[in-house]
User: Fold these one by one.
Assistant:
Number 1:
Amino acid sequence: MKSPHSIKPVSGRLGILLPGLGAVATTFIAGVELARRGLAEPIGSLTQMGTIRLGKRTDNTSPMIKDFVPIAPLESVEFGAWDLFPDDAYTAAKKAGVLSNEHLDLVKDFLSTIKPMSAVFEPTYVKRLEATHVKTGPTKMALAEQLMEDIARFKRERGVDRCVAVWCGSTETWRAPAAEHQTLEAFEKGLRENSPEIAPSAIYAYACLRSGVPYANGAPNLSVDFPALHELARREGVPIAGKDFKTGQTLMKTILAPGFKARLLGLDGWYSTNILGNRDGEVLDDPESFKSKEVSKLGVLEHIFQPHLHPKLYGKYSHVVRINYYPPRGDNKEGWDNIDIFGWLNYPMQIKIDFLCRDSILAAPIVLDLALFMDLAHRAGMSGIQEWLSFYFKSPMTAPGLYPEHDLFIQLMKLKNTLRWMKNEGLITHLGVEYYD
Ligand SMILES: NC(=O)c1ccc[n+]([C@@H]2O[C@H](COP(=O)([O-])OP(=O)(O)OC[C@H]3O[C@@H](n4cnc5c(N)ncnc54)[C@H](O)[C@@H]3O)[C@@H](O)[C@H]2O)c1
């Protein structure tokens, strides 16, 4: 594949649009503003803190990623959001309880100015929330048009040149793709006829793509991952990516499992359980929303271990994932893993992990990187599914017929090689060519 002839330079302001102004979105916005004011570090973000090696190891050339590719500076970012509740970002952040008052008060003036636009919502898709700030319209197409008007107004009022969207809304109930999802024509007919198969998140995705806005999906629901919207993304020349931010337990899985596989250690079972008490946990307490999450979490191991290639090692392991809503924990999730592995001559061993993590602290840098990389891809003329951003997702979207890559280290190599490719730099394959040339 040829590298892009040129990447459009960064000029003007970038709008980051967030359907869902809850724990993740407010932690992200507050963190960006604290970083802009020099009051905190954007830890965990490749676009802000990552480096990229160029050329041979002996060249000692490893610039910052943000100096190597033209990434929009944090100073140029404007935020917009939609939510089911009218709370501004400061009030929502206080309720989410992720960041301390000490941090929030430093940016209270800024957060208080971010007021969500009213949401497109359907209670059958998120059962545990009673929305108070929603759009009404005769059809789902009319709602999509209202979202497009929101985007156009946001750009006008904030003096924004271009936008990207990252879904930070609740996890919707699990649905298999239906006929409406197969072609753009069928999907648009479904919008006009109010098909119950079309979820609110897909209406946002449609409105964004029609507005030329790249769309990344942080939740496991379909949203933009079906043929009709793949078609629209290609037609409009807009990048799309998903699904489900890779944080906490799945991050650990995709760090550890490639190691076991590399050393050909066998697996009898992997039992994962979580307790969490934030609003996301409350939504996931509904079995139909949990089903979306479960599907997304379960796929990871199979693709890493490839049981069809290694039936003796990975042919019949048991993989169980549980999430329990436990309010006292708030956003500070606890994830336990019990891993039964076996080695030489089938001798069994066990590994236990107890990860006391903070969900939104792990998710916020992902939102930032996705927004900035999706904007970069758009300016580089890339459109459709951005597999090179699989690094950030539990359940990466792929081109039809391909299996997703889950190994975190292969994902990172692919991401960095894509950046090298964009800039016509030699790819790094770790073949050690420096010894031979
Ligand atoms: N925090 C993590 O580590 C993590 C990891 C992977 C995925 N996710 C996903 O990211 C999403 C956000 O997580 P969170 O912890 O911020 O949840 P949250 O419940 O705090 O925030 C979600 C917000 O979305 C709003 N919302 C729901 N439906 C909406 C709609 N149709 N339009 C506009 N707003 C809507 C809710 O009112 C809520 O304020 C969830 O889907 C979650 O599963 C989070």
Number 2:
Amino acid sequence: MEGESVRSRGHRVKRGGVVARSKSSGRWLREHFQDPYVQRAAKEGYRSRASYKLLEIQEKDRILHRGMRVLDLGAAPGGWTQVAAACLGPQGRIVAVDRLPMDPVASATVICGDINDPGVIAQCQETLGGGVDLILSDMAPNMSGIASVDQARAMALCELALDLAQDWLLPGGALLMKVFMGAGAEDLRRQIKNSFKKIVVRKPEASRARSTEQYWLAMEFKPDPLREEELDSSSAAD
Ligand SMILES: C[S@@+](CC[C@H](N)C(=O)[O-])C[C@H]1O[C@@H](n2cnc3c(N)ncnc32)[C@H](O)[C@@H]1O
């Protein structure tokens, strides 16, 4: 069997220990470096092509304003954080969270950890110190290649972003999140509609047509009256 090839994570692995790049990973690399948004990001100093998705949404919907408080979930390598920091200016505040390490961005606090971890949630809360005006979530799970598993993981990240929005958004605040269309998306839309006055769907040009991702922008957050009562009683007790 020596020398026989097996597929492993996009590489052809020869059973003698010699690893050759598979055709598909070679194609991915070629496509990546020929991508006009990748080339533009390198020229314009953005850390990722994803920056252009947020720039296009900002151009249309004007969600980022000077002095805002923003939570950026799934922030690495920091393309969205760079865009947000430039729009918020020095008075703004951004907390950027990712389980992958990320280089600092001026005026942002970077937290490295999994947003499912209660310790990371507590760190965000402490750093934000009060409510936020906007939550961004570009989180995407590690893909297993099993569609149903990947979709369930992606939906769990959306639900977590929505939970955090329900806990931390200031009245009138907004949530922008990446949603992979598929099982669970309609239910998510119903949940969002309960907490926000308006929801619009965006598919920026930088989002690849073959990707099922969409960006959902939920606006004019309406806090649960029970949450407001709890907040009032805890601040009265301080
Ligand atoms: C598409 S990338 C984000 C790109 C980023 N918005 C930018 O502009 O550069 C998705 C990110 O979500 C992060 N992510 C996925 N699940 C996460 C989790 N549970 N907690 C924190 N980050 C997570 C991944 O590590 C990955 O860096």
